[in-house]
Structure formats: structure tokens, C-alpha cells
Amino acid sequence: MQASLPVQLAAFGGALRERGVPVVLSDEADALAALPLIDIFDRAEFKRALRVSLKIRRRDTEAFDVLFERFWSASPREAAVSRAARDRRVPHASSRKSAGALGGSGAQGRNEREIASGDAPAWSPEALLRRKSFEDCAPDDLAAMEKLLARLAERIATRPSRRLVPARGRGIMDPRRSFRAAVSTDGEFLKLARRRRAVEKPRLVALCDTSGSMDPHTRFLLSFLLAVKKVARRTEIFAFNTALTRLTPWLSPGRIAHTLESLSAGVPDWSGGTRIGECLSAFVDVYLDMTVDGRTVVLVLSDGLDRGDTHALVGAMRAIRSKARKVLWLNPLLSDARYEPTARGMAAALPYVDLLLPAHNLESLERVLPMLTA
Fold it and tell me: Do 176 and 299 fall into the same domain?
């Protein structure tokens, strides 16, 4: 049986109380209110949010961990099922109410025991949107995706890097700086120097194919890039089809849909043909030196269907790869398991690409994010 999230959370609170953990109804309400503010598809983040909002004390941590594994045993991805499937498995709310009235507390107890047996909550509305192919999305879906895109992009703004930097207050002790400071105090360690992991925002250059073959995906991929730019300021975005256009000056902090309308109206040959080689060569000639260095990740978003000169594409990709830290190619066609990168453009570019990745829905874009700072 598939329980709704509020019902599952209420049953979880009841089970905690049975174990002697002092969780009250206001704590459950706080937990429910906190969930829209986090990424509930991240199981670790979801667990932390419950522990904080339910005000779990240290001595109750073990009981909380045991019950969390029982109630939320499936990962958020496994737990996210379609609404249709949930409707087939869960009785309508009015049916549950009627069953409770006929069966009394016994029916309610059986219902709670079934929920406590480890059934996972249904996060289906967001799960469906995240897994929905861009080809199947309607223009209205873009507005619903904006919040999810912003939440995805926020991860790279808060993702700690491997690099340690000096820190005040809490952090890992820095022996070298601590000894150096102690020299001025006759060897007395009056204060320990500390370090912590820096939050390293990526340097990105994105080259997005806006030709006709990419039309079902372009708006959503540009929406993703716009959301990333809001949190990673050092991001340059270009569009290419039969010519290269620098989009960065066009971008505004307003709603994504409005920005995309301006772009589609102002970029030459939007949804037209494509000459990837000539466009990337133009990027190399004009913008490469000023936008790409050894810390820059270059993203190419294209299906690789090139009508132009592949020799120009090889030369441009070789030049980009020689300067960039990493080159990622996002190709919507990779969603098809039968796809092979044999198209002229894709085959020519592949030797200079570090990773060839799918980009057909939000879930695939989510997997790209850690690679922008790794």
C-alpha cells in the first residue's frame, strides 16, 4: 500500500512516541512545513530535515535512526511513483473515512500498522516532472520546472570543494599555521588555526545548439543554464545554429519564460539549420582566450547533427580541450539505449570530449551538477 506523505509522517511521529521519543503534533507540523524547503529526493538531506524539525535529542538518535530505516527504507527515487499507480493502490480519501467509520479504531490501527511496515511516501508530482522527457513537455511545464531548476542549481552554490581554506571558528585544525602563530608567543598555542572546505562555484562556458533538431529540448536546456548562471556568476552562455550568438548580455534576472521569449525572437536562425564546426570555430577565434582557462568547464549541448565541415569542428574542439579543465557534451539522444554517436558531428567531436552525457529530462541534468565542480 502506498501512503501519502502527510499520513506517512504522522505514522512516523506516532511510532517515535511509542518508543518514548517526545515528538508532539507541532513538531510533525514543523517537519511537514520544512519539506518544501529541501530536496526530498536527497535521502540524507531528508533525514537531516526530519531530525531537526522533529527536535530529536542526542539520546533519542538511535531510536530515530532505526525507525527512519523502517519507514523510509526506499530511496526517494524508488519511492517516487506515478500518481496513477498510487491511485490504483490507495483507496480514495472518502473510502478510507468510510472504512474507519465502519471498522472503528481497529481499522485505523491496521492502517497505521500497514504504513509502519515500511511503505514509502509518494513524491509522485515532482518525480514525474523530473523524469518527464523534454520532448513530452508542454510550454506550461516550464513554469512548474522553474522551482526545481532553481533548487538543482542551488546545489552547486553550496557544494563544498576538496580545497581547504583558512577559517575562523569551527573547522579542521591547521598544524602549520598553528605552529607559525605559536612562534610569536614563545611556543604557546594560544589559539589554533583552522581550515574548512571552500564553497567553490564553477567557471562555466555553455554552448547551446538552438537548431531545429534540438527544438524540443532547447527551451528546457537554456532554462537549466539560466538557473545555473544565477548561482554561478562566472558563466558565459552562447547559442549556435548557423551562426554563433553570445547570450550573456541578453540574460535578465526575471522569469525564465520571459527571457526565453526574448532569445527566440532575437537570435538569428533560431530553430533553423546548424553548422557546429563553423560556430565553434567562431567561438575559438573570438571568445576562447577571454572566457576559458584551466579552471573552466565547457558544456556543449547538442545532438551532434552537423551539416557543416567536420574538419572545422575537429580543430575547434581540439583548441577548446587544450585550454579547458573539462569538456562535457550533453546530448538528448543518449536517452535512447540504441543510440550510438555515429553522426558526423558527434563522431568528430568525441575524441575531445571528457564525458558524453544524456540531457533529455531534469533527472539527467541533476546528474551533471556534481561534474561542474569535481
Answer: no
Q: Considering the domain boundaries, does residue 174 fall inside one?
A: yes
Tens of pLDDT, residue by residue over 231-263, are 777 899 999 988 999 988 877 655 666 666 777
Is the Cβ–Cβ distance between 287 and 249 less than 8 Å?
A: no
Regarding pTM above 0.70, the answer is no
In terms of domains, do 79 and 169 share one?
Answer: no
For the segment 93-106, what is each residue's pLDDT rounded down to a tens digit? 333 333 333 233 34
CB 208 within 8 A of CB 221: yes
Q: What CATH number is attached to the domain comprising 303?
A: 3.40.50.410
Q: pLDDT (tens digit, 9 = 90+) per residue, 59-75?
A: 888 899 989 988 887 54
Q: Are 208 and 301 in contact (CB under 8 A)?
A: yes
Structural domain including 178 reads 161-199
Answer yes or no: is pLDDT of 302 > 90. Answer: yes
